[in-house]
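Tutorial handout. Part one gives the primary structure; part two gives the three-dimensional structure as tokens.
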Amino acid sequence: MESILQGEREIALSGAKLMSHPHSSAHYGNKDAIRAVVVSAVALGLAAVAEISASILSGSASVLADGLHNAGDVMTSFILLFTFALVRRPATRRFSSGYGRFEDVATLLIVVVIIITAAIAAAESVTKLLHPVTYSNIPLSLAAALIGVVANLGVSEYKVRVGRGIGSESLEADGIHSRIDALVSAGAFAGIGLAGLGLTIADPILGILITVAIVFALAGTVKQLYYRMMDAVDPTIIDELTSSATAVPGVLAVHDVRVRWVGRELVAVMHVDMDPKSTLENAHAIAMRVEDAVCREVPAARLEIHMDPGTTPHTHTHVGTPPEESEDEEDDQGHGHNHEHY
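Part two.
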């Protein structure tokens, strides 16, 4: 898997160009995303029906495990459809930043679905390992497993391409998961094939290995989700934002740059030092030029600018943690700047 933070940098640099003043936000081009999810759900749904039906007729634990997992993928598709519908809603007074962050919630729900389907598959495989069964209709199960391989490879490449194109973490994560599922389906094919050749223990063992593969693939998604929940970004994005703003005429310095992802939108806050004798109108014009320069360099960014008068050192107090001040400091208050961060 590619570096998660580097991948986010590519998303930030490849997003649609933002409009300037009035302050803009990223556009959710969901037509391609919805089409990808629907097509994937149909393909995996057909594969799941084929595999589960074949496993019932043949008694294959590995094919059943793969079928259950594909059925779980169909459930995650419905989660994604709900997500894309929700994030398109406009911001409200309660959700003033919009619903973009729900993509992280969707990723968490996908993780839960994967865990549940993996647990069911593991339980069935262990049961058949301890209590061997007689296999039948082997060719039917082989064909069903092959359908699973083809379906997962197809939807994987489709969802990953669309997810990266629109900057959707949850869609890309689901696509990567489907890529691993193609190997899982191949394992189911091998399990029932070996069982048909007389090595009946191979089928439940492959079922257990399929579960292990599912959990292993899940680890990458969990790590990605952790980074997003902790507001981690590629540090080079901050450097690019800072250098773009600093290059604007009239900007004396740039500091206190903070960046985080909200869905597919990169929300950035920076403090820009300007001539303290500048008029409000001139300062605002410079701020707009900074916003335009930053958005050209990092198209996925939505920038909020705090204008500081000059480069005189001053403190920035975080809300809820005011600094302790001595009496002398209180007397001198007003000689510096005290900014609250929200």
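Part three, for discussion. Strands lie at 253-262, 265-274, 301-309, 315-318, 338-341. The longest strand covers residues 253-262.
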